[in-house]
Amino acid sequence: MQDYAHVSLLTAFRTRRISKLAKMIFILFYFILFYFILFYFILFYFILFYFILFYFILFYFILFYFILFYFILFYFILFYFILFYFILFYFILFYFILFYFILFYFILFYFILFYFILFILFYFILFYFILFYFILFYFILFYFILFYFILFSIFLLFCCVID
């Protein structure tokens, strides 16, 4: 073995001095080593690939749900913001319309009431004014006729008496 210490491994294999068992162990060792390295190399890149894939998927999954969450949140906020201002606008509009509607009908009611009262008052005054002047007129007429009737009667009486 000392003779071949300086000789390369390849030269040692070419010589017949190394036994077949040693060659087989040597080949088996390198075969195991090769497949061991290959296995761990494949395993490493397999783990690396799935690790990268997992974190890539995880990253895009998180990113997707993060974007989706903020997208949903944004549209949720936007929807409730629009809804709030829509409700607020229609609430204000409703109460504004209601207020002016009530105000309008309130004014209309009091306007009608006022003119109705004025109308009643006017016709009441007119009626009593007409009645008053009618009564006064007939009262005066009545007393005028009565007066002249009495006067005429007295005149006739005096005429009859004198005759």
Task: List its traits.
single chain, mainly alpha, rod-shaped
Detailed description of the structure:
The protein is mostly helical. The protein has one domain (21-162). The chain contains two helices and no strands. It has helices at residues 9-14, 20-162. The radius of gyration is 64 Å and the shape is rod-shaped. The mean pLDDT is 76. Keywords: Membrane, Transmembrane, Transmembrane helix. The chain crosses the membrane at residues 21-42, 48-71, 78-102, 108-129, 136-158.
Q: Which structural class best describes the helix and strand composition? A: mainly alpha
Average pLDDT rating: 76
**Distance N to C terminus:** 206 Å
Number of domains: 1
Specify the overall morphology: rod-shaped
Low-confidence parts lasting 5 or more residues at pLDDT below 50?
A: none
The portion of residues assigned to helices is over 70%
Order of secondary-structure elements: HH
Radius of gyration: 64 Å
Helical segment count? 2
What's the structural blueprint in terms of helices and strands?
Blueprint: H1 9-14, H2 20-162
